[in-house]
Design a protein that fits this description.
three-stranded antiparallel beta sheet; 18 strands; alpha+beta; nine-stranded mixed beta sheet; 8 helices; about 400 residues; disordered N terminus; globular; about 20% helix
Length: about 400
């Protein structure tokens, strides 16, 4: 009973602390000796649904990579009416300080730990294309913020588009058609966390190295994240935790390819386990058959790997708002045309984030997982000469 009261109190704190926001998924922060939080949801696709998977991903604050991992074989263009979808809202917090912003490119999620709230806000992101990777193993700060950013493509970008028979304006003015969206948080010297005019790319490798969010999510960050906030980039496709009751969990995401050969291959990208993860799964209480199955499935959801008693984790707060592709396969350009606004789904607390029109100039390869190690500062400066 006491645990239930504490859970309800934590949820109430989260609701009060973030009553001004409409779309972010807010989780109660688990104790320092725990990293498991949230609860997976299962929804039924309405019989009359004609919506693509992106619409359901946006409705429940997921990226496409999260949905594809949790629902292998789902049709990305038109999920089958009447079928079930798992919404992977349960997660293991990254192995990183619970401070400021933590960006785990491997799972394509941004974690924000607001001071004094005992909560964590989790948002899906789009990251850099192969060869234009988002940084990893880098800690910086939010150095400035800008509403209405402009984008000036580099000479190299003009050459890339020209090779595809496309042209780019010399400067994209501020506004809804700007690939950087309507708001930007500038980090370091050459990167930004910004919006997008192509929601279909959230949860995919689509940018020139920057971090993209849906319009409402970047607006929320812009309004709530102060300049000077710590930002840490990490690369953790496999997360593991030992919970206070002795339960052990792993959460495994499909790593991103690091070469063109891997990108084009249908074979799974190899998974490398860190010493910390290896130590957790090597315990005598662990069922190695379950571990092997989890490594094969790569569902992006926490899997209990030992026999300790399991207590259901707290469910994230998802306030209401108004309003089959293989991992290495490239989406055809006309996928964007099938994007639409998400309608309410059979679930009590959806976050209804409608999909925006997509900029066809940005191809969107579907590859949900971890980027290759990249130089911290490639040759695309932001805000005026930025990759988006």
């Amino acid at each position: 009973m006491k645990k239930s009261i504490r859970a309800i109190a934590s949820l109430a704190v989260a609701l009060v602390a973030f009553s001004q926001q409409a779309l972010a998924v807010v989780y109660p922060l688990p104790p320092a000796n725990s990293r498991l939080t949230g609860e997976n949801l299962e929804i039924t696709i309405p019989q009359d649904s004609k919506l693509p998977l992106e619409a359901f991903a946006a409705q429940y604050q997921m990226g496409l990579s999260n949905m594809l991992e949790a629902n292998p074989g789902v049709d990305v263009y038109l999920p089958q009416a009447g079928s079930k979808l798992i919404i992977p809202h349960q997660l293991i917090l990254p192995d990183a300080p619970r401070e400021g912003i933590v960006i785990n490119s491997a799972e394509m999620r941004l974690y924000y730990y607001p001071k004094g709230t005992k909560t964590v806000v989790v948002l899906p992101i789009g990251i850099g294309e192969l060869g234009k990777d988002t940084p990893v193993d880098w800690t910086t700060t939010v150095q400035r913020k800008k509403a209405g950013p402009t984008w000036t493509p580099t000479k190299k970008m003009h050459e890339e588009y020209a090779a595809r028979g496309e042209t780019l304006p010399e400067v994209f003015p501020a506004g809804p058609d700007n690939p950087m969206g309507l708001y930007a948080l500038y980090i370091g010297r050459l990167y930004a966390i910004h919006g997008t005019n192509a929601n279909f790319g959230i949860g995919l490798r689509v940018s020139h190295g920057c971090v993209r969010l849906r319009a409402d999510d970047i607006k929320w960050l812009f309004d709530n994240v102060p300049v000077g906030t710590r930002v840490q980039f990490i690369d953790q496709p496999v997360k593991a935790t030992v919970e206070p009751d002795g339960s052990r969990y792993v959460e495994i995401h499909n790593p991103l390819s690091t070469t063109e050969e891997e990108f084009k291959s249908r074979a799974p990208v190899p998974i490398n386990l860190t010493p910390a993860v290896s130590k957790i799964i090597a315990d005598a209480s662990v069922n190695q058959a379950i571990v092997d199955q989890a490594l094969k499935a790569r569902s992006g959801m926490p899997v209990k790997i030992n026999g300790a008693a399991e207590e259901a984790p707290m469910q994230p707060v998802v306030p209401e708002s108004a309003g089959t592709v293989a991992p290495n396969q490239t989406l055809p350009a006309n996928a964007a045309e099938q994007n639409g606004n998400a309608a309410p789904i059979n679930q009590a607390q959806p976050a209804n984030n409608g999909a925006a029109p997509i900029d066809q100039a940005q191809p969107a390869p579907v590859e949900p997982a971890q980027p290759a190690p990249a130089p911290v500062e490639p040759a695309q400066p932001v805000d005026g000469n930025s990759g988006s």
